[in-house]
Amino acid sequence: MTTQLQIKDFLKQFESDVPTHLAYDWDNVGLQIGDSSIPLKGIMTTLDINEAVIDEAIALGANLIISHHPIMFKPMKRIDASTTRGKIVKKCFLNDIVIYSAHTNYDRLEGGMNDQLARRLHLTNIDTLVTESTLKRVKLLVYVPLTHKQALDEALIASGIGTLGSYEACMFETLGRSNFLPTEKAHPFIGSINVRESVEEVKLAYLIDEDQIALACNIIKEFHPYESPAYDLVPLLNEGQVQGIGRIGDLPKPVTFESFVQQVKATFNLEGVRVVGQDSKIIKRVAVLGGSGEKFSFDAIDKKADVYITGDVTFHPAQDAEQLGLNIIDAGHYLEAVMKEDVQSICREILMRINRDIIVDISSINTNPFSYR
């Protein structure tokens, strides 16, 4: 009989795919409301949380809502059920609803928000718009008895370890013998106290990023049979994954700004956008950053963008961009609604990986507060 999957166990898998450590320090990602120890019945993805979204989740039978924007972005000093957020908190607890947020960690994720925006625009030669750091690479060497090699390797690979460029599940193995003598304080999995043992083992080698070290160590401790597993973490000079925000790339063929604006509206199902620049300008190189990205306008200029797509652009930065020849499409925050479909795919892949048949719905509620006349 298959045991019920608790929400916290699903979220553990989700966080291996969308790590919370990628979020900015000022952000509040992860569990927002609810008891994650309850069984998972259904999942719904949404850009924002409001009462209508909660009602929709209840109607669909989804007890885990994954939003992009955190409902607890600003701390609550009190829970007053007569307020907007207080009503939401009350309704969640009365209906066993859990709310979880993947915000700037999803924005900064390779394959996350900004890659998905670039993909939908059919950009080529895609690069990071704003490089913030480059992860250091580490070689993980772990020594394990043959009896437990498969379980340990599968657990490491399932967590995302073993990725090398466009290849996944990369590992090199070497057979050898391990020799050890358990002391009186030991509780050996193999062997006897004060008797030196010689055991056939295999050395597994993986290339990992420095931010995967804690994850790898936890998996080794969980799946390795020895009370003191032997493993090495060897720093390398290889450059690892570039971490940053936004993407820049080229259109398949140049178009006028006027045509490109219509393309953006159609692609992202937007009623209207605010624009800066001449309609007749030819657009080839495009920078895009979901959310509030006006402070990165000069990065778009430095990387020779013809147009910059973002949200929440204010008056004077828009003037500066215009004077410097950068066209802007302010598509607002609702541009990020693409995450509903993309996070649905991530959740479905996880459930398939762990062999669970749970429905993942997309919220149909339009949470955009703006309308266009």
TrEMBL record:
Q: Which UniProt keywords apply?
A: Hydrolase, Metal-binding
Superkingdom, taxonomy of origin: Bacteria
Transferase keyword on record: no
Gene Ontology MF annotations: hydrolase activity; metal ion binding
Give residues annotated as binding a divalent metal cation.
68-69, 107, 333, 336
Q: Which Pfam families match?
A: DUF34_NIF3
Instruction: Output the InterPro entries linked to this UniProt entry.
Output: DUF34/NIF3, DUF34/NIF3_bac, DUF34/NIF3_sf
Q: Is Metal-binding one of the keywords UniProt gives this record?
A: yes
> GO cellular-component terms in the record?
cytoplasm
Q: What family does this chain come from, according to its entry? A: Belongs to the GTP cyclohydrolase I type 2/NIF3 family.
Protein's name according to its UniProt entry? GTP cyclohydrolase 1 type 2 homolog
The organism of origin for this protein: Halolactibacillus alkaliphilus
